[in-house]
Design a protein that fits this description.
The chain is of the alpha+beta class. Helix content is about 40%, strand content about 10%. The strands form 3 sheets. The chain has a 3-stranded antiparallel sheet, with helices on one face.
Amino acid sequence: MRGDIRATAGIIAGGPSNTPPLVPPEVDLRDFAATPIHRTKLFGSAFHAHATDTEWRAGITLILNSWDQIPAGSLPNNEAQLCRLADLGRDLRTWRKISNGALRGWMMCSDGRLYHDDRWSDAGEAWQQKLKELAKHNSRPVIGDELRSEVYARDGYTCRYCGEMSGPLECDHVIPVSRGGSTTLANLAAACGQCNRSKGAKLLSEWLR
């Protein structure tokens, strides 16, 4: 924690600082299955060097649970909520004993929430990756229902690659969009999900090697 900011009675003492939040308020990472940890930053941090076993466990748990908050990577400055987020249930006595060590590296920003200053689990970085993936997904051309039906009918409702007939079909770009392929009947093929994902952004010549 910066300067004289310390955990008192299980919370960060004092009012909100003038420091703006470290991530935008709209950051939502609840659909992320994993929380990345920069291990070199973690193991080189003052938190890792000074925390007791109980403080370390609670501190890591807080980091992991902070990614399910909005904005992601933040925590409420409320001792009952922090106690639960540290996986201590209602055991406020234990939380008050370990809160100073468990909250090492956290700071209160102008919105009254806590943000981790050491950045060994960077929600802002993950958010930028999410935005890039969303932009990439949204930029893909839409295959209309009429065109999709034409592709399936032409290919006999069968995966053109493996001959699968029983499962649901998808439309694959024979020449991937990322390689200059167009969304036309000539460049689309009926494919089962397994073949479509296996082929990915490869040309047929690359995939069938």
